[in-house]
Design goal:
12 helices; homotetramer; 2 domains
Chain lengths: 351, 351, 351, 351
């Protein structure tokens, strides 16, 4: 079987590198085009960037020549976007307009009413928006987005609970890894023997994106879920893996801790049903040890695609409190987008 | 003026060392006795412990001979306790019974109805309990405690708000420093590129102690304040300084952010009035920069005795959210106890 | 093909866990016995230890019952030892005496004249000592050791240079990872915003072991290589991966940097020839970027079995200086032992 | 007594902030002028920079208005330079030409034959060059420099040994703190669970600067000391404090370890004799504990101006090996410059 050629927009950045790492030896997709800024264009990929993943740069990708982010007749029909938000709006639109399926990790179109904001296990039905989007833009191309890294971990845990018990309110405090800010990103003096209690432009995404993800899709539009979410984001000295302390109150039921845990552990979606290549066997795993999940020990479960939960317990102010861990650059970024693309392919949106 | 001789129980541990550091050149107190376990007893202090403070071990203390934790006719009338909770119950009681004022950082007697749990700026009136305690124990000695490190930071911020606006509910998520667990304490493999989402035996203290501190003292007993507190504690790769993300709802009023900030910044107590040696000029300072307070940059304000607050803002689920920072081994431990002792001296409980 | 049953001595410690992780799905070996101290004996492995590897504890191993370190008729013929040096002398001897091939990572027998100290790529001929050892001990069992973690990285680089150009003197300064001290190991307060400039009992091994490894084996005894080695070990805030800054002077030739680099990159041994399961394709890889090798990015090359070298350059006081990186708990411990066992099996010492 | 007005060139950067911190309440000097790039000029200092020292920004400095780096009739006669090397050449020359004493931490003029490269305790006689420099430039102003941060720590230790025993060769491997690269400086992903084995443009300074410092000044020119120095610099996850592992061989004598230690501990210079405000009582202190010096515990000795030495011991390849620690932004930068200025004032070069 011939593999589907794919391109990567923003290939030289941290998320771009993660895309390349995760797509190495992918059974369906094959990287044929790498796009970056003018500064890098024209160079071999291995010369255009300092490879900083913890596996070797795949030889075939190393030798690809980087191109500027412009469409031509050679542009693959599927491109992943790891573009900086300062340029994503225009570039992604132009690729979509010219017939490409743009599977984007950028924030720019996430809240656009025509653009699906999808976590493959949770809301594949939101891909319906693609039909309207194509029609509206009169193009065979389209944009599909995945949420912010912290939002993904949170939504994975909220989704099965919301479906079964309803959710009224959710409070999140996150301890986020340095890689979330890319490279060079956060200065080392900010994180050696230190914590930065603020991440610019982060909390808003955590408050709004889950409501779209958990919303109802009818007639080509999404009615957001009505959940009151509060979020505080902090940055700590971690390479990868966001920890989130989550307190929540249910809307329709008061499940026991045992029921909640079972609901989480049984959570499974279309990716698992379809046995998609990047789908983890268990989207959520629960840790009994109260000192877990820990980023260094648990972030790579399910190849970085499993969200780990622990410390489910009583709360005086909410129904329950729990702690979750999500690998922010795999499940929270490149891995989520690749899983979305796999789903798009299986569902016939990309061939 | 002759200085008051003081002893330190548990002098070789991390908090014991901090006591010694902070009492160096103290205008009123002079360390004359150091107490530790049998293993250390009989040795010169400098041989009995590896000094791990970031200032030099004072020469006079270095040469003191460590004694076992037993009372005799030479025992000073004022002792600070940095004892491990496994031995504090018995030792502190025996020192108090034999006429010593025991100013303790240990948790053992904090919730005892006869023992004051005092933060000098907040509830000096709880020292009244001493009278009942002495009578009950038929002794001129007594025990006074200061709260847990995380509790102190929290209580400092809650106190002026509680007094002025009432408090209904408080939610805290803490990012705590390694030094809180003493030395050797937390293994480095737990905190390099990692977070531990749990601290054994910590959250309970944060939930209960503030209610006693903010309670009302009448007729020799404390009626705890009725505030619903929720707490989650995590351990991060920091040397010193606990960060707390606090959300709260008021009981009696809905002050504006401006009013809240003014209330916090104007907070001041008896230590400031009496100009006690260890009293910071500002018990609370507010940071306008949303990326502050940061442990590495702000924990030493007011010599480590000032609590720093930032990020006061709207919350969807509470009235407001804010972030605070407290130096856990100065304001949160040894410094708090020394300030309590200074207050005891000024108030005539110790002479 | 039926797999060879193997036991692990010291299975609950950090190196023991690494053995279990690396032996999961091993094509030749299958863990059937786990040995630890009396405290753990009798429990299921999953209850006897807190699993701290970054992959999941294999189900079959999790359910094995831990035994005390004693030999009986069920003892497998091949055991790996991750024993603490305080008990290794006696336990390893008793297992060897009772017919087991003990492949040990412990230091106790490394310098014993009858015991091979082997890095599979470098000195497989030292396995000859086994014959004498068996005879001497009148047993079919025997002990084979691999060197200290820092020594292995160093020896891998010295070996091809020594063979080709001779070595007169070698100076090493190492920046070592926390995992080298096991768990709990180094306190976090020692490594947050800190360096410990000393590792007890380490430098001596780096000075003596390479000379035995590079020595000549004739008639059942090893004549150590005559190389003057100086070593300073420091501990830094790393999880895994020792960095070594190495300066050296050759004895017989003055190769160019190009020749040296080629000699290193071409280095290959019996494990590569025999295509042993744990043998990395490239025992040594060279980095052109002067800012490499970096532990976080390069330690997992070759599955953690490849030693990475960089910064080969002029020295004013030696012939050349270079920097190397070795994964201390894979190539530097459990992985090295497993590779030795694979070689023993292939060479007919274990079946 | 009226204080001497001083200016700071490059006041908004990390070293500039350190100058301001250390000059707060200085008995002789008073900051009256702050210079920075055009971007900051015109703003109040507190608005022009994010203050990142661990003490509060002094009120009077906070309110100073930042100026561009140009000379006018108000320019103070003494300016400290913390300028980036990209602009220091021109700016420092223009200030000197216009009559200012420029006490610079920048590297640009360090190796200039007319410019003193001075560590106040070691080579105050090199200030003689000022006379020639002034004549040559026909100006009452001049430039005086202090060495690179790593060089200073090294030179402090070499100086008394060189004077007494001569030095033939010196090998240095440094573990350097993040602050050496300023702010934002080193990305956090480079130092979390990582080491960078290379610091661009650093090793050369360590090799050449000590020879000028220890050189002989005669007739207005310096003959560098003839010592063969080798250096390897690495960057580790530290806020402040460079560790240096130093091996050395003497030229004229073979002192015992006891003699060496005494020579180091007795080292004292003009700053101690003159009791200069920033002079530490002990320029060098020796630690008996082999696990010291440690940056977190020892870097602030002598207010950050004392160099700490430990682990003096045998070497197989040199005469001895030792480990030293220097606070890189105090003794290694701003503090060194201020001490130089104090010496200049005492010696009549600045009034």
């Amino acid at each position: 079987m011939k593999k589907i050629p794919v391109g990567i927009l923003g290939a030289t950045g941290a998320v771009g590198q993660r895309f390349i790492q995760l797509l190495d030896n992918h059974p369906w997709f094959e990287i044929t085009h790498l796009y970056a800024s003018e500064r890098s264009a024209g160079q071999l990929y291995r010369d255009a960037t300092t490879w900083r993943m913890d596996t070797t740069l795949p030889e075939t990708t190393a030798k690809l020549r980087v191109e500027i982010c412009e469409v031509d007749e050679m542009t693959p029909k599927l491109v992943f976007s790891a573009l900086d938000s300062s340029v994503a709006t225009e570039v992604e639109a132009s690729f979509a307009k010219n017939g490409a399926a743009v599977v984007s990790n950028s924030k720019n179109y996430r809240m656009d009413p025509l653009v699906p904001l999808v976590v493959s296990e949770i809301n594949p039905e939101q891909l319906e928006l693609i039909t309207t989007q194509k029609k509206q833009n009169d193009s065979s191309g389209f944009i599909v987005t995945n949420p912010n890294c912290t939002t993904i971990g949170l939504s994975m845990v909220l989704a099965p609970l919301y479906e079964k018990y309803g959710l009224e309110k959710v409070s999140v405090v996150s301890l986020q890894a340095s890689s979330g800010a890319g490279y060079p990103g956060v200065p080392s003096l900010d994180l050696i023997d230190n914590v930065v209690p603020y991440i610019s432009d982060e909390e808003d995404k955590i408050i709004t994106e889950p409501c779209k993800i958990l919303g109802e899709t009818t007639n080509g539009s999404v009615t957001p879920a009505d959940i009151a979410i509060d979020a505080t984001s902090t940055r700590v000295g971690l390479r990868d893996g966001h920890i989130e302390v989550v307190s929540l109150s249910f809307a329709n039921a008061k499940p026991s801790h045992k029921e909640i845990r079972e609901t989480l552990e049984r959570f499974s979606g279309l990716p698992q049903q379809l046995n998609l290549p990047s789908a983890p066997k268990n989207p959520i795993e629960y840790c009994i040890d109260p000192a877990r999940p820990q980023p260094a020990l648990d972030r790579m479960r399910g190849g970085g695609m499993t969200v780990t939960v622990g410390r489910l317990r009583e709360s005086k102010l909410f129904d329950v409190t729990l702690t979750l861990l999500v690998h922010n650059t795999i499940r929270g970024a490149a891995g989520a987008a690749i899983l979305n693309a796999e789903l798009l392919h299986q569902q016939g949106y990309v061939d």
